[in-house]
Design brief:
The protein folds into three domains: about 130 residues, Beta-Lactamase (2-Layer Sandwich), CATH 3.30.450; about 80 residues, no CATH class; about 160 residues, Histidine kinase-like ATPase, C-terminal domain (Heat Shock Protein 90), CATH 3.30.565.10. Helix 12 packs antiparallel against helix 13. The protein is built from 14 helices and eleven strands. Strands 6-8-9-11-10 form a five-stranded mixed beta sheet. Strands 1-4-3-2 form a four-stranded antiparallel beta sheet, with helices on both faces. The longest helix is centred in the middle third of the chain and has 60 residues. With about 500 residues, the protein is α+β, with helices and mostly antiparallel strands.
Length: about 500
């Protein structure tokens, strides 16, 4: 129940914004349709088609909770003077080629509002009415929508309350059903055996008739056999009862162990499914959006935009691929399904190959990689999992580094230890998060919103390093640097195991 309530509350803000965004786009579409109708039926609108949307804007302000406004950077009517938000939106749309522009702000009347703006372009109906230098598909201005968020928030809160009560009722019903099943399948049969035992203790020979085709049925059959033999030999009966009791305890212990394992597996499965559902949504949305945009002929003819979109598609596909690889790796490590095979590895070559895998990201951020490892350094590690360790730490260093900064990768001996260090100049880790970043599904609070991730990478690294009898030391200063050290005993990694 606690994770369910937490998810409801944590998703509420995002859901409010998504609903407001959807409503704003709907209003925008209706305004555009209204303008198009007025333009195509100008002979039915006096004095000009633009009056329709202008009057509708005033009427909406009086009759509805939302507002909309049409403006331009080339004003014809003083009523259309842009607000600060609309000026910022026009600048972003014209210079950054954005399809829409949004913000959350405070309004003296409406309270917290969601501001949305989308561009207006010249079409054929506009040219037929305006002849003063308009060209088809030119940027004419934009429509801004202002939606109050309080009503959406209230509605969503009511929905969450219903969901919460549904969870409580479902939990109670599940407990009742499980209790009834336990009584029907186990307790009543155990009571039958208990009553028969009391009868035998009183000197009466009784037969139990339990046919459940399971361990209890086997126990009942054994019990009947012992009750028959008790008439001939009391010592044999005592021995049989002790044996049966021992088997029963063993079965209960085995069931308990299996149940504990199932609980652990179910908990991991739930955590994995929750993380997948949350983390896969963003890259899939981007893939879908860019795939749809690639159908646009203007984008296909623009080499720069086409390259940008295809790069983003590859990047998001790789994000999903990395997510599933991390999940598979964690699952194998969690359940002891991986056999470690230690082999001699040239650490310089391994790190250099991993760095080359991130060449595009390194160039995009103009990073400098300082590789300070002896070319002859050889260590005995499990090749497959240790590549995962190096890959995750280089990936984190590149992802969280500031542009035009330096990443230092260094390996050296210090006393009885062999140390591999990764240091970046980037966003860093909050001091309160350093103790928990090695825990699965935990990420620093300062990177959750801006940087995508599952919180699995460092937990996988930590588990693999422990299997190599090593440890991890993390130091960081938020907004400045992070240093991760892998510390191994030289005797552990300098010889074949």
């Amino acid at each position: 129940m606690i994770p369910a309530v937490y998810l409801l509350l944590s998703n509420q803000s995002r859901t409010i914004i998504e609903q407001a965004h959807t409503q704003a786009k709907t209003v925008h579409s209706m305004v555009v349709i209204t303008r198009q109708w007025a333009a195509e039926n100008r002979e039915r609108v006096e004095p000009v088609p633009a009056v329709v949307t202008k009057e509708l804007s005033k009427y909406a302000e009086k009759m509805t909770a939302f507002r909309f406004h049409i403006t331009s950077d080339n004003l014809v009517n003083a009523d259309n003077v842009p607000t600060e938000f609309e000026m910022a939106a026009m600048k972003a749309i014209q210079h950054n080629h954005m399809k829409e522009y949004t913000e959350i702000a405070q309004d003296d009347i409406l309270g917290t509002v969601y501001n949305y703006a989308a561009p207006l372009f010249i079409n054929q109906s506009c040219i037929s009415c305006h002849t003063d230098g308009y060209k088809l598909n030119d940027f004419r201005g934009l429509i801004s929508i202002t939606l109050p968020l309080d009503e959406i928030k209230t509605s969503l809160t009511r929905s969450n309350e219903i969901t919460f009560y549904t969870i409580i009722i479902s939990l109670i019903l599940i407990i009742i059903v499980i209790s009834l099943l336990i009584h029907r399948l186990i307790i009543r049969h155990v009571n039958t055996l208990t009553k028969a035992t009391i009868q035998i203790k009183q000197g009466n020979i009784v037969e139990t008739k339990i046919d459940t085709s399971d361990e209890i049925s086997i126990l009942s059959e054994a019990f009947n056999q012992m009750s028959v033999q008790i008439a001939h030999n009391e010592d044999i009966l005592t021995s049989k009862l002790a044996d049966a009791a021992g088997k029963y305890i063993t079965l209960v212990d085995e069931l308990k162990d299996k149940n504990d394992k199932l609980d652990s597996i179910n908990q991991l499965k739930t955590e994995l499914l929750d993380s997948i559902a949350h983390e896969i949504r963003t890259p899939l949305t981007k893939i879908l959006s860019y795939s749809e945009l690639l159908d646009d002929k203007r984008i296909l003819d623009n080499h720069e935009m086409r390259s940008k979109f295809t790069y983003s598609l590859k990047n998001n596909i790789n994000t999903i691929k990395t997510l599933f690889n991390d999940i598979v790796t964690l699952s194998r490590l969690e359940h002891g399904q991986y056999d470690y095979h230690f082999i001699p590895v040239n650490i310089y070559n391994m790190v250099e190959e991993r760095v080359e895998m991130f060449d595009i990201d390194i160039k995009n951020k103009e990073l400098i990689i300082s590789l300070n490892i002896k070319r002859t350094d050889t260590i005995y590690v499990d090749g497959e999992t240790f590549i995962t360790v190096i890959n995750n730490l280089i990936s984190n260093a590149v992802k969280y580094s500031y542009p035009n900064s330096t990443i230092i990768i260094k390996a050296y001996s210090y006393r009885e230890n062999y140390i591999i260090m990764f240091k970046d100049n980037g966003v860093g880790i909050n001091k309160n998060d350093i103790k928990t970043v090695l825990t699965k599904f935990h990420r620093g609070e300062n990177v959750k919103k801006e940087y995508p991730g599952t919180g699995l990478g460092l937990s996988i690294v930590s588990r693999i390093v422990r299997e190599h009898n090593g440890r991890i030391d993390i130091k960081s200063k938020e907004k400045e640097w992070t240093e991760v050290k892998l510390i191994f005993n030289k005797d552990d990694i300098s010889k074949q195991k």
